[in-house]
Amino acid sequence: xxxxxxxxxxxxxxADSTxxxxxxxxxxExxxxxxxxxxxxxxxxxxxxxxxxxxxxxxxxxxxxxxxVFLREGLMPERADVQGExxxxxxxxxxxxxxxxxxxxxxxxxxxxxFDAASWNGIAIDSTCGGHGTCRKCxxxxxxxxxxxxxxxxxxxxxxxxxxxxxxxxxxxxxxxxDVDVPPLVTRPKASTxxxxxxxxxxxAVQKRFLELEEPTLSDQRTDIVRILDAITDLEPRVDLAxxxxxxxxxxxxxxxxxxxxIDDLLVDIEPGDTTDRRFAIAYDLGTTTxxxxxxxxxxxxxxxxxxxxxxxxxxxxxxxxxxxxTMMDDSAAGRLRELAHATLNSLAQEVLAEAGVAPTExxxxxxxxxxxxxxxxLGIDPEPLGVAPFVMSAASFPPVPVAELxxxxxxxxxxxxxxxxxxxxGGDIVAxxxxxxMDRDKRARxxxxxxxxxxxxxxxxxxxxxxxxxxxxxxxxxxxxxxxRAADGAIEVITLDPAAPAGAPEGVQLGVxxxxxxxxxxxxxxxxxxxxxxxxxxxxxxxxxxxxxxAAEQLPGLADRLSAVGQERVFVxxxxxxxAPTEQCVYLSQRDVRELQFAKAAISTGWSLLLxxxxxxxxxxxxxxxxxxxxxxxxxxxxIRIGLVPKLPVLRIVSAGNVAGEGAxxxxxSARERAGxxxxxxEVKYVELSxxxxxxxxxxxxxxxxx
Length: 708
Known about the structure:
By secondary structure, the chain is of the alpha/beta class. Helix content is 29%, strand content 21%. The chain has 21 helices and 27 strands. The strands form six sheets. Strands 12-11-10-13-15-14 form a six-stranded mixed sheet, sandwiched between helices. Strands 26-25-16-17-18-27 form a six-stranded mixed sheet, with helices on both faces. Strands 2-1-5-3-4 form a five-stranded mixed sheet. A hairpin with a 3-residue loop joins strand 10 and strand 11 (290-297). Helix 9 crosses helix 10 and helix 13 (524-537) crosses helix 18. It is globular, with a radius of gyration of 28 Å. The two termini are 16 Å apart. It holds the Pfam family Fer2. This is 2Fe-2S ferredoxin-type domain-containing protein. Residues 1-34, 46-66 are annotated as: Disordered.
């Protein structure tokens, strides 16, 4: 198939010969397909385009001067009395916003969006696009004051909801005082906290030695430090200045019975009494969406507590590109993003420490595995070069750094081990995953796929290893999907269709819902299941189009009544809350949702197919496929095969690897020798830049269709 060809057999732009958009959209509006293919022609990494906004609705970035003044004068000034209908405060050109249920009162320059006002004040509003008007997740209700209704609001809300004050926060420009009700943001997503990992020899860099020292005498006037070092017979550590400062006091208060704390070759502390059984470390998987922390007991090598939460940077966007863009538009954004990353890490540290009954000063080391952008933002490194060609990192590897650089308050001598990165879009989290899964040790041909907004792919033939990154877009996180949501309570995660069920019978569509509550939306694994099942039973053809109502009534009468429309767009109803509920109030899958998934899976399958060519392999040569990350852990292997997300192989070759990044972070804390292995991977793995491949576009278009 040639570049630009539509695998559905129609016009490459996605419109039919009459000019109608087959997805049911406005025929005068550029389709997502045409925008995506046009973007790919210029830069394959632009493949995450979500669709156009009306020009008059497109949110503008906040004026840096407004934001600077706003931050300098305080994030939470007291609410002042409003003067006049315009709501401008004392002629200052500002308006007052009151957010519920937080009760926060703020003032912002007139014209700032409600989304930006909330983000500046640390009020989390759900979003995956960073307030650019494309994901339609930032739903709020105006309980006092009003705002114009935009065309995107009309597409998002029912007329009743619009009348009740519901709007998209990023499109509400503040012109009058507003009371804003913010729906609760799910802060406990369903995340994988364990994964596939190799066993390691327990030999942490953090060592403790209990010392019973002889007190000084006139005949033994060795210094306190020499006395300590002489008693440590198996090591020759250097001494931190903090130890020299505290030695005299600690030794004498403890009757010269102390525990020496050594990290690698540095004596960082002496503690009163015998504390040899109290040494801990925290392993972090710093994901773009979800962050997981594991508290490790270094004496036993076992986890003492595990916790996860959404990355606090979510208000700045659901993917790395929107967060990088935020730093490019506003000089203060990078600092704010760093603060939010630190707040997330700190919150998780406090949670696991409280659960295990461990004091912060008993944590001596931290391991951090994150993609290149998350790592850069956490360390205060400018991420802008990662977002523009030629996508260059400031550094691939890092020395151990004080944990204070990550905003953590632990032992004063504690340090953080940061995983190195292979490239701008194959970061330390993937290196950690490769380390945990033994990609460099196995002689079999293996494919490693970390599915997400930016999908990282690694392929090994047992001798050579190649890697790449594919811009899958936000569909797997629920972004750009009509009823999409993150994997949290109320999200449909498993779907099974029974084409033999009687017409209208509920058993025709069987749903698995997180939390066993009423369905609220569709998460990534549910999206893949839905499309795979619709393709399996024949409601979707190989091009991704819904069959006609007539065909459905004839071929699949038990499911035909679930085909409906929202506006002019065809949809399949997954859940109807009441028998007479309009389709707009149902949980459904739209034709455009199917297209979004096709774009995502095509980017990924193009990535691994190009890597196969690099190593002269065929899909059948792959002996194991590892699906990694929080999303990959819950993805049905059969559904992934059916839509072409992974090669068509026996289902038993597809393995859910879980949180392998977190497992890798644990390994370097439990065994110092594994750190050298992580650094060695930088030399062993070849990175393939997809945007530099002239055949990417053709391969991408070929991969849009579902396999037969």
